[in-house]
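HUMAN: I'm a chemist; might I ask for a sequence paired with its structure tokens?

ASSISTANT:
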Amino acid sequence: MEKPLWKFTDDEGTFISDAAAGINSLYFPLCNAAPIMSSLSPDLHGDIKTGFESFLMEPVSRLSLKNLRSSRNFWVYLSPDKVWSATGVAKNNRDIQKYDTFRLEAGLLWHKVTRQNKKIGLKSEIISFIPASQEPVEIMLVNITNISSGRLKFIPTAAIPIFGRSANNLHDHRHVTSLLQRIKKERFGVVVTPTLSFNESGHKKNSTCYFVLGIDQRQNAAGQVFPTQEEFTGEGSDLESPQAVFENLLPGKKLPIQGKEAMGALRFRPILLNPGKTVSYIIMMGITKEQRQIRPIFNKFNTPDKAAKALRENKIYWQKQSAEIKVFTKDNGFDNWIRWVNIQPSLRRIFGCSFLPDFDYGKGGKGWRDLWQDCLSLILNNPAGVKQLLLNNFCGVRIDGSNATIIGKDGKEFVADRNDIPRVWMDHGIWPLFTTQLYLHQTANFRILLKETAYFKDRQLSRGRVQDTSFCGQAGSQLKTKSGKIYKGTILEHLLIENLVQFFNVGAHNFILLEGADWNDGLDMARERGESVAFSAMYAQNLKDLAELIGHLNQEKIALLKEALPLLDTLTSRKIDYSKVPAKRKLLEKYFQSVKGDILGKRIFLDKQSVIRDLKNKSDWMYKHIRNKAWLKEGFFNGYYDNSGQRVEGNIKGVMRMTLAGQVFPLMSGIANKKQAGDLINNAWRHLRDKKLRGLRLNTDFKEEQLNLGRAFSFVYGDKENGAFFNHMCVMFAYALYKQGFARQGWEVISSIYAMAINTPNSKIYPCLPEYFNSQGQGMYSYLTGSASWFIFTLLTQAFGVRGEYGDLVIEPKLTRAQFKNSATLAIKTRYAQKTIEVRFINPGGKDFGSYYIRSVRFNAKDISGEIRKSRFFMKRSAFLSLAKKNNLIEIGLD
């Protein structure tokens, strides 16, 4: 049996690995909210950047991570035949490096690599981190120890190649942009400031600086500096066997350095080191907007004590982040793994969906769907801190119910599309309500629905079907009235328009049009006639939930843009027959025409109960239509129609075709009746579950390309959106199972994901929840995935059942016998009403879900329930606050 790739060493997420150096695709993230973002391989390949336009090291992808010669290196020269790379990246001395022993130790968020080589008598320890104090710098702490029995003399050299420009210039104008480099040798290293930000559509004067600075433990600067790669490597060598190191050359005094590929190669003074003694170095690699910002950064970390303090603070910061939601299950592996999963939404808030090797170079920003779903975890961790973020996000909604798809770093800059392609995703209108509803449940702050914000405006009209050639505003403008004022509508109005538009936006089978794609971006070739039954189910649920939310509003009138009134057709004299597709399309087209330019900006005020009835009528019609028309004789739902208007799922040409998404949302919304739910679950297990790896695939093998549906089916089966173990949809399925009372099956899905993640001989990843696992069980696209937010959301609110319900506290455990296997007590720590609570479930009989009930409730050691027999415990927010302290323990007795 193969050994695991890594193992946890404490209860704080720290892990060690002796085998990581043998996995080419491994990488580790470092970051802060400055933001500066890094990726590290076990031998310190990777890159450093603050955005797409500013890479300090050459951008890497999964493939180039190991193949690229550019890396953070630290050389030790003892003699012409004894040259050692303390990071293991060397080419001409493999007879030396083969004697290396390796160990990696890492935690939240720091990375330590230890190598020792008895042949030369040295050990290196290199700790990498980015300070939590928001300076745009990565710090590398290098310790070299003499492990021999005699004194050793050597010359150390830190070697960091400096790319210093946009990722665009990796292949586009690589040489030309090197001519812009202005390199300055400073006392402690090298600073590179390109003269221009090179862009043929418009060059700009540059002020961004890239620096590599170093100092030894006694605050001595490097004795010599090699500022260009050309000088450091020599003509016949490269970064893995630099001539300056192997031949122990000195820098040239009069060599030209401007307009060259830059190098931060810092040669420190020769060292005579006694046995057992250690010499230390601090290497700083950073990016600043102006050169004057560099010196304060250097001064803050330029001694061992200062650097050690920054490392401690960094560890404390990320430990706190990871412990906002914490589980106690007596399964040390699971409890530690959850700590890593819990920081992933924070990582994606910083990285976006780019800037790690699996995500290639990326262009920055965060997608619309990603933004809202990451907020699920952020709300659970700190709902009070998310309010303004939610308000900002709604500014990306268009008046036609579509939205900008990319959101910039500050959360206020919206872009129609990363690639400037006019398209919309049909599922995007779902997520704002889903997330806002969680916020309302956790806070009871219904006033947010009445807050007003603007609408996004650009050339796209009628959900991307028409381009407004007369539009003369800037991309990312705001909707205006005919009088020239920016129009602002309530958050509730935004939510109504997003969901009501989609009710009418249907295809030939009266399901909502697929448009550019839905959650599965790979379903992108059915724009004209494709339909998404799967997400029609979610819109049906949204209309139902909107009616419920409005019922909780403490006012009798609902404000709405006058042009939007026809979308509430039962409130007008032109109520339509919802079974008639042409009537729906006609109504929608009339609405699109009414809002295609500047609007009147007048509002009407509608009776609350009338709005509620209209929404319920629409929702009820959709529920019945999906339940009756999308259910297949094979025992599951058809989730899609393709661009020929043909049904996608079922037994087609002798091939059983089934998608997981097609089952998740009819189940989650409650559209599936009891029998349908049981049948679709059985068929999901039968057709989608892998017998060996036990996980659920995104779809069965359709056996042929689906050019009328999407690119996904041109991918090899078992990878990405074509049949991979796609964790995002799997976790959504677990949530749907829990929500409908199928707790055992929900836990099977949750635990299968965890089992695949920690099966490291196969998964080949550090502790995290990746975007998906391929057919070999290898984890792909680590860290930056919305499935992390959904996993925490499902575990807390469904499995442990701790959640808000319109501001009040509900505890409704759906824990299974399997979860109580290691202990009769399980607990979860979270926040509620700005207080910390640990909810402890005590099940002395080890009973399964469905066999136990809540017998007693103790609040901070005080019995507050007496003897009860209920499946859920409800506590008013006011009652909770009257008893609560800063930290609270709630003990739930199960029997």
Q: What stands out?
A: The domain at 1-12+633-789 is CATH 1.50.10.10 (Glycosyltransferase).
